[in-house]
Write a structure and sequence with these properties.
The structure holds 2 protein chains of 2 kinds. Chain A is mainly α. Chain A has 6 helices and 5 strands. Classes of the chains: A mainly alpha, B alpha+beta. Chain B: This is Tyrosinase family oxidase copper chaperone.
């Protein structure tokens, strides 16, 4: 079933409850051979270079398509585990005023341990492979960085080159790298706590944030061209080319295969 | 033999191995049964910051070591854009990330009097608040 991914600002109370309950259930129940912690494992594994020296998830051109597939899988698993094909991942447009950190959604504690309410241990949310010695989800919203503004988003969206050599965090004229550092990284640091760490998917805000990053890439594609991934050919050292499989996803899950979101079963409202 | 010479001998070659061993033996004799103090770089530090013991050893790019309250934090060096806070043009430099500051590299500045590792350790303490590093933080990885 195709779903429409909504802004958190447009969600109903029922949709928020459905989403957080699906996440909680997925923490303790497998679906399609995966569970919630599998996602944290993949993020830690594929943030690093793999043994064939390829950067799959970050600081490389496949940053966008890798996370697009990652979110698509999670959305599918949340639908399966909750038996509700209408479950969707909402996006958090952090340039706006709507916050996900409320008691009825991702929890209202934004300075330190989420010790009560949604996403606290007593609610049913436990940390996995935490580099901070704690059983509580940590947040330090706004202490280490500010949110990107709408003007800053527009500046980043105006870059016309998708990506180019050396295909890493040092490329200046690159939409991918500008988005990854100036928007993506900054919001991880804005939320702080576990969102600032390698195991960031411990915080469900990860999905709302990356959904917005995926939406921005889709908006960029809609104006610059859907089939604009770089590099195109299969011989660029150290990165995933357009027709190269992104690990850990299955054979054929290439940047090219996820360039258009319509066949992936979702759209943005 | 002073500390700087001992460090250079240990760091830069097998040619100095005999001299280094002699220096270590002398150090051991002075230190008695305690572990041998490792050679110091002038930028190494072992001090308190917000009540936490921060300890850094400068061993060269990609091999530098950082401990916070005796828990190791693995460091990964990456080449990345940095955006000056005054809004001037971004520039490329090497930076350290870790499991804790994974999206917020600290620029590595070479040179004897620079304190990038101390700056990184303070940032990590600020992120940790009153918590400690977990074992996962000691696991390194390449980017």
């Amino acid at each position: 079933m195709a779903v429409v991914r909504k802004s958190i600002a447009a969600m109903t109370s029922a949709e928020k409850i459905t989403f957080v309950n699906a996440l909680r259930r997925f923490k303790t129940t497998s679906a399609n051979g995966r569970n919630y912690n599998w996602y944290i494992d993949q993020h830690i594994t594929y943030f690093a270079r793999t043994n064939d020296n390829i950067s799959h998830a970050h600081q490389s051109p496949s940053f966008f398509p890798w996370h697009r597939e990652y979110l698509r899988l999670l959305e599918l698993d949340l639908q399966t585990v909750s038996g509700n094909p209408a479950v969707f991942i909402p996006y958090w447009d952090w340039t706006g005023s709507a916050s996900p950190f409320t008691a009825d959604f991702l929890g209202s504690i934004t300075n330190g341990s989420v010790s009560s309410g949604n996403f606290s241990p007593s609610w049913g949310w436990t940390m996995y492979r935490s580099s901070i010695a704690t059983s509580f989800l940590q947040r330090r919203v706004g202490q280490n960085a500010s949110r990107p503004t709408a003007a800053q988003v527009n500046t980043v969206q105006s870059y016309t080159v998708y990506d180019q050599s050396p295909w890493n965090a040092s490329v200046s004229n690159s939409y991918r790298n500008r988005n990854e550092i100036e928007l993506h990284n900054r919001v991880h640091n804005y939320v702080g706590g576990h969102m600032a760490t390698r195991e960031a998917p411990n915080d469900p805000a990860f999905w709302l944030h990356h959904c917005n990053i995926d939406r921005l890439w889709w908006l960029w594609q809609s104006s610059r061209g859907i089939d604009t991934y770089q590099p195109r050919t299969g011989f660029t050292s150290g990165v995933v080319d357009n027709n190269e499989t992104m690990r850990p996803f299955g054979a054929g899950r290439t940047p090219s295969a996820v360039r258009d979101i319509t066949p992936l079963g979702y759209s943005y409202a | 033999m002073n500390d700087i010479n001992r460090r250079d001998v240990l760091r830069y070659g097998a040619a100095g191995a005999v001299t280094a061993a002699t220096a270590l033996a002398a150090g051991q004799a002075l230190a008695g049964p305690k572990p041998i103090p490792l050679p110091l770089d002038p930028r190494d530090f072992d001090e308190l910051y917000k009540g936490r013991r921060i300890r850094g050893r400068l061993l060269g790019l990609g091999r530098d070591e950082l401990h916070i309250n005796n828990k190791k934090l693995a460091l990964t060096a990456i080449s990345t854009l940095f955006f000056p806070e005054d809004g001037s043009e971004p520039y490329v430099a090497m930076g350290y990330i870790s499991a804790i500051n994974h999206y917020d590299p600290v620029e590595i500045v070479e040179g004897r009097n620079q304190d990038c590792l101390k700056k990184l350790s303070r940032k990590v303490v600020d992120i940790l608040g009153d918590l400690e590093l977990g074992d996962e933080a000691a696991k390194g990885h390449q980017h």
